[in-house]
Amino acid sequence: MALKKMTASLLVLLLFMTSFGGILASAASPTTTGLNLPLVKTYKAGEVLNFTVVFSENVNVTGGTPSLNLDIGGMMREAAYVYVSGPSKYLQFSYTVQPGDNDADGIQVAGPIQLNGASITNSTTAEDADLGNGYGPGGATVLDTSIKIDTVIPSIVSVSYPPDKTYTAGESLLFTVEFSENIIVNTRYGKPYLSLNIGGTEVRAEAAVYASIGANQIGFQYTVEAGLEDLDGITIDNEVKMYGGVIEDAAHNLINLVFPNGTATHLSGVQISAGGDAFVTEIPADGYYKEGDVLNFAFLYPADVTVTEEPYLPLFFGTTETPTEHQAKVAEVTGNKVVFQYIVQSGNEALNGIRVGNAIQLNGGSINDSNGLTPMPTIVHKLALADVRVDAVLPKVQHFYKNPINQNYVTGESLEYRARFTEPVKVSGAPSLSLMSGGRSVAQAVYVPDVPGLEPTDLVFRYTVQDTDKDVIIDAVGQLDSTNGSIVDYGGNASEANVTYTQFVQVLLNAATPTITLVEMPAAKTYDEGDELLFKVHFSEVVRARISPAILPVMIGSNTVDAIYAGGTRTKILTFKYVVKASDLGANAITIGSALLPNGGSLIGKDGDGLQADLTLNNVGSTSGIIIGQAAPQALNVSITGTAQVGSALTGSYTYYDVNSDEEGLSLFKWYRSDDALGAGKTAIPEATSTAYTLQAADFGKYMSFEVTPIAKTGATTGAAAESALTAAVTQVNVPSQPIFSNPIFTTTSVDVLVNGKAESAGTATTSTVNGQTVLTVTIDQKKLEDKLSAEGSGATVIIPVKADYDIVVGELNGQMIQNMENRQAVLEVRTNLAAYTIPAQQINIGSISDQIGTSIALKDIKVQIEIAEPAADEIKVVQNAADKGSFTIVAPPIEFRVKAIYEGKTIIVSKFNVYVERTIAIPSEIDPKKITTGVVAEADGSVRHVPTKIVEIDGKNYAKVNSLTNSPYLIIWHPIEFSDAANHWAKEAVNDMGSRMVIDGKGDGSFHPESDITRAEFVSILVRGLGLKPENEAAPFTDVKASDWYNGAINTAYSYHLINGFKDGSFRPNAGITREEAMVIIAKAMKITGLNANPEGQSIDKILSPYTDAAKASTWAQSGIADSIQTGIVTGKDGTILAPKDYITRAEVAVIVKRLLQKSDLI
User: What angle do CA 32, 38, 40 make, to 5 degrees?
Assistant: First the structure.
């Protein structure tokens, strides 16, 4: 301490003498004359330090609370004044020791009394006391090194155990427990002890004093009792037990008696024997033992022995957790010596050494003395022979990694194959690896020594391409060849020659590019609508279409059309077909383009394993004589004008069109009357055969239509009949027209809105016509809706039902209403006769809309419209063209679903959602639900893509439930597909279903190749299509995926939805195979998009994977995804117990797991 230390506990009386007349007089002010300190000892937390300050005369304390400053271990504390009644010469101060106070050098009273606002005065004259004199000759600072503070709870820092050996009766086991500071042991009322478990018997090692025990240690001793035995090693409990004794430090702090590791300790080397053991005199020498080698163990007994039957010595190979037992049989008995012998068998393995069992097993026999009467001891005491290793397992190649990529290698370039063996291996000489092509060896990759960074189990083999390698395909690896060297394990076993691995990625050596050598044209003749134009394209070698077949561009007149691939894969000749359409008629001649178009795929040489073909069309045949027939005339824009009232005249009008410019002849006209607006009971009116018709009484209440059959004077004379739309119901004079709604839901402008099925007149309907389409808008009253939602609480469903037929139905709310619904987790539904649109308010994301419009704009001023619309005429034409091109049938008319926000002319389109949003589309009653395959999105460019769709029955009527993450026009289609090579395949149902849903593609020739491996790009594309995700055509963030690649959109979409990550080098490797574990990880990520709960019971990954015998082969990073895929039943493994995580997944397996994903997510 900085202050000078001095001895305290002194009461110093200071007498003040005056020199006036030599008379002894009292000073005017009282002074401090001494300080009584606390009792000398070590104090612990909670104990009180008492101090007494002595004054020269009685004093009074008034006002605040005086205190003494204490220095405790360098920390300042205060001892507070303890009030007493009346004047006194002795003032008491006290301080209670707090946890954390510690002072091993002794406490100090630092400085004089602190008044803290109080007054200390003479009890008679009220003069203030003089406190500056301190407490005697030592001044104001007092130190006592004998008064110490200790609030630290001592603990056990280490435990030492008896040496490893086998102990017998009478021997002592000594334990030493060391504490964090010096301790005091009181055994007056009992001895502390350690609890030991010896062969199931609890015994005590009691506190004892023996040599080398320090002041901070306690010794414990147990003397082995007769009859006890524990050959697996004793167990010691995790704490010192007091048993009436006391262990504390100098401050009497009781000690934490739990061992540092907190658990019981098994001392496997401290063994207890009941005595009478066999004495081992010979064990095998250290080293490796292979198949046929001999392990001998010799035992000496106290006397000569006889052996009967077949006793054996247990030997344990393998790990401690899962050892396998083997038997060393008696091989020799000579006098008192018995030799047990084991001959190593094929498959035996103990690379970390062997262990000997703890007793000879008599196995129905005996080991007795020479008279055959007295049994000899059989206890052995397990021997762990770590350096006696058994290796009778041949090393073999487990798998290859970092193989050559799929490309063409030219002379001088090298192929490297890295082989991982089942155990560490050593190489001598130059062994090699056969490289295969079509089942025959075509080259040898030679071992490369001293490659840095390899594991002991790994070898590298390299082949450098030679000039003689012409157009060679390497499609597999064959056997290891030890002609020029050897590969052995550390036990000397030669590696197996056979390699079962077949590489997926095939490589080329000095490959030639396939070219087109001839194009055969269709036969010279006239082709009419429905006729086929067949083109045969000849290649220089066998080719195969990959991913998507190419197309042949054909110019018919001024229009370019696509002749699609029609067969011939794995041959030199590919056939392309185009079916003549009505729109083609009238063209006199055809020509073809300069090259085939890839159409998102490629044509690969060498039966699909070589280079991409050059698609330039060479040696094109003549088109002379190929003529497209004449087109029939058309009647366009057929309509009716006039008033639908009995007695009034109706006029039918139309536009005559003939692509060949043939003049109109005598076209035919008909008028029809129908019973309702849907055309039921349609009947021709016999006498109505001109463009004009006067309505008769029989027409009252009927719906009229006009039909034209166009006829040309020359050429193809008769066209298809075309009919107008139906009129409104015919009325009579002075009879009011029919109401707008055939089944009205409101009388004037009021519309009922359903909140949790309860009607509330909260809507106002208005009608209009926009671009020739009728529009009904239902505007919701904010207050009425709020009141109803408040009454219903969270999670309400608000339905706007419209039963009348309009082209467009709009439900309109304001942004504040949407926000309030979002806060209440409400769902909004607009329902018409044709469809229903169900959307959680949260998915409209009014917050994002507000950010785009301007956060200063009040939400109530933003209109939010939810629309169900029939597409306009031009959009319907696009859809019909898509159906024609895609060879599917539309079974329910297209419906468009839109969400938009409007503020002062600015419109924000909500087109993308975070979860699947449901649309329900009514199926016409005449449609067989078994002839519906799926719903599709109709894009503006005429393309279509699958969206998850399931057919449901509600109140006896069929509906298609479409779930999508985007807004678009949707149509329901019939698109049956059956692949020829899946007819007898185990995955037939899934393959055909996914093909019919446009999720998977075939190979263009009616086949699917279900057992072929699939590329990473193909897998991602199928999953994206299956989920109904819209391709995002921005450049994907991978170095080996170009914006022009057919798979770019799918890969970019999968990346944006966090389905894929790629590799650390920034690549995606789109054309490489995808393993089962990689596929399962991606499927598990897809479950998050579909909302499928992968593990509702919260089982551990280990438990889920435990039924599979090869689960350990799964990569650590993949285990969670594999577990999720298995737990949901999307993946079931192979043969019930095999995951095969490193196997490449097949096309059939992909079809099955994608279908299961959609089914278990309730999307199909």
Answer: 130
Terminal CA-CA length for the chain: 83
Cα separations in angstroms, 413 against 505, 508, 829, 862, 1126:
17, 11, 64, 66, 43
Asked if 949 and 961 touch (Cβ cutoff 8 Å), the reply is: yes
Distances (CA, A) of 753 to 157, 759, 788: 75, 6, 10
CA angle, 373 as apex, 372 and 376 as ends, to 5°?
Answer: 85
10 Å Cβ neighbour count for 294?
12
Considering the domain delimited by 32-150, tell me its CATH architecture: Sandwich (2.60)
- Single-letter amino acid code for the residue at 210: Y
Is the domain spanning 397-509 CATH 3.30.70? The answer is no
**Are the C-beta atoms of residues 533 and 552 closer than 8 Å to each other?**
no
- The CATH topology of domain 279-391 is Immunoglobulin-like (2.60.40)
Confidence (pLDDT) at 618: 95
Angle at 248 between CA 246 and CA 250, to 5 degrees: 135
Q: What is the 3-state secondary structure (H, E, C) of 362-425?
A: CCCCEEEECCCCCECCCECCCEEECCEEEECCCCCEEEEECCCCCCEECCCCEEEEEEEECCCE
To the nearest 10 degrees (0 to 180), the angle between helices 1076-1090 and 1016-1027 is 20
Report how far residue 175's alpha carbon sits from residue 205's, in angstroms, rounded to the nearest whole number.
8
CB distance 527 to 629 below 8 Å: yes
516-628: CATH class: mainly beta
How many CA within 13 A on the CB side of residue 960?
33
User: ∠ CA(9), CA(10), CA(11), 5° rounding?
Assistant: 125
Instruction: Give which of 820, 862, 827 is closest to 843, Cα–Cα.
Output: 827
* pLDDT at residue 22, rounded to an integer: 34
CATH number of the structural domain 634-723: 2.60.40.2700
Backbone φ and ψ of 142, nearest 5° = -130, 130
Q: Do domains 516-628 and 634-723 have the same CATH topology?
A: yes
CA torsion, points 1003, 1006, 1007, 1008, in degrees to nearest 10?
60
Looking only at the bridges linking them, the beta strands covering 440-448 and 432-437 are: antiparallel
Which residues make Cβ contacts (< 8 Å) with residue 3, sequence separation at least 6?
71, 108, 110, 141, 143
Q: Which residue has the tokens 């409209």?
A: 844
- The residue ranges of every structural domain in the chain are 32-150, 156-272, 279-391, 397-509, 516-628, 634-723, 750-974, 980-1160
* Count of beta carbons in the 10 Å neighbourhood of residue 1041: 21
User: Given CA atoms 128, 134, 140, 141 in this order, what sign does their dihedral have?
Assistant: negative
For 54-105, write each residue's pLDDT tens digit.
Answer: 988 999 999 899 999 999 999 999 999 998 888 999 999 999 999 999 998 8
Tens digits of residue pLDDT in 215-244: 899 999 999 886 677 878 899 999 999 888
**Distance in angstroms (rounded) separating the CA atoms of residues 426 and 1159:** 52
Give CA 1017 to chain center in angstroms.
Answer: 19
CATH of 156-272, one of 2.60.40, 2.60.120, 1.10.10, 1.20.1740: 2.60.40
The identity of residue 87, as a single letter, is: P
- Residue type for position 616: T
Indicate the pTM of the whole model.
0.42
C-alpha distance from residue 324 to each of 320, 344, 354, 382 (Å): 9, 13, 10, 15
Q: What is the pLDDT of residues 714-772, one digit of tens each?
A: 766 788 899 998 888 888 754 333 333 333 333 346 788 999 989 888 898 888 888 88
Following DSSP, what letter does each residue of 36-96 receive, concatenated?
EPPPSSEE-TT-EEEEEEEEEEEEEEEES--EEEEEETTEEEEEEEE--SS-EEEEEEEEE
Q: Which SS3 state, helix, strand or coil, does residue 785 take?
A: helix
Structure token digits, residue 813: 């709310």
- Residue 278: predicted pLDDT: 58
